[in-house]
């Protein structure tokens, strides 16, 4: 069981140190990767653009790429820096995550990362979890054939709990041609406030595995 001291002590076999998705794909899967046919990111902005709400790429959930013509003041590169959050033990919901700094609506908080697995691996892992009697699932489908699984490898984003009145939401973006999932503030958030999102309706829909167990699927 996880414990909180000066740093997060993780259970054996689980890594919480991922800073990017880990692709566990065979060569035969390479051409089907969710980002293999994606555009290389936005490259259309003008040199004086700061890429705010009127940015066409922002509306398409496509980050400005390193080859974009926009200025250094570009605001459409949300995955560049995480906000300060930490995992904490809760009284009723096991582990959760809180913000260590004030957040504004629309702020990028952290990327949801894990192992990117194909359909066959996902199905096998789900059966293994069911046989073990696991009660917690950390899977988020990013395309028809691929899923992010943060069960064994991930970061603090895996500790965000469900709420019917959430302060965060998940968004699927194209970043330099790669499909990535970000956690964004859906309203202002105070220091020390628990970070939550709606597993059913916050850019995800639910797929029930058994009572109170949800598999997250991006839409």
TrEMBL record:
It is found in: Chromosome; Nucleus. InterPro entries: AWS_dom, Hist-Lys_N-MeTrfase_SET2_plant, SET2_Histone-Lys_MeTrsfase, SET_dom, SET_dom_sf. Its main location: nucleus. Residues 83-200 form the SET domain. Coiled coil: none annotated. One of its GO terms (cellular component) is chromosome. The keyword Methyltransferase applies. This is SET domain-containing protein. It comes from Oryza glaberrima.
């Amino acid at each position: 069981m996880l414990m909180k001291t000066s740093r997060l002590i993780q259970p054996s076999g689980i890594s919480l140190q991922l800073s990017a998705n880990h692709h566990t794909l065979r060569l035969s899967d390479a051409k089907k990767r969710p980002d293999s046919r994606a555009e290389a990111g936005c490259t259309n902005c003008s040199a004086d653009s700061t890429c705010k709400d009127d940015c066409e790429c922002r509306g398409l959930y496509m980050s400005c790429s390193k080859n974009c013509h926009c200025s250094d003041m570009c605001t459409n590169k949300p995955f560049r820096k995480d906000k300060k959050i930490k995992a904490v033990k809760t009284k009723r919901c096991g582990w959760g995550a809180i913000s260590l700094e004030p957040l504004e609506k629309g702020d990028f908080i952290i990327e949801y990362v894990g192992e990117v697995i194909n359909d066959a691996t996902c199905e096998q892992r789900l059966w293994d979890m069911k046989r073990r009697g696991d009660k917690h699932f950390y899977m988020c489908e990013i395309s028809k054939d691929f899923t992010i699984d943060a069960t064994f490898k991930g970061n603090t984003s895996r500790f965000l709990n469900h709420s019917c009145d959430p302060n965060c939401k998940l968004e699927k973006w194209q970043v330099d041609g790669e499909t990535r999932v970000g956690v964004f503030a859906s309203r202002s958030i105070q220091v020390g406030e628990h970070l939550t999102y709606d597993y059913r309706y916050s850019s995800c829909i639910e797929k029930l595995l058994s009572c109170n167990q949800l598999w997250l699927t991006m839409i």
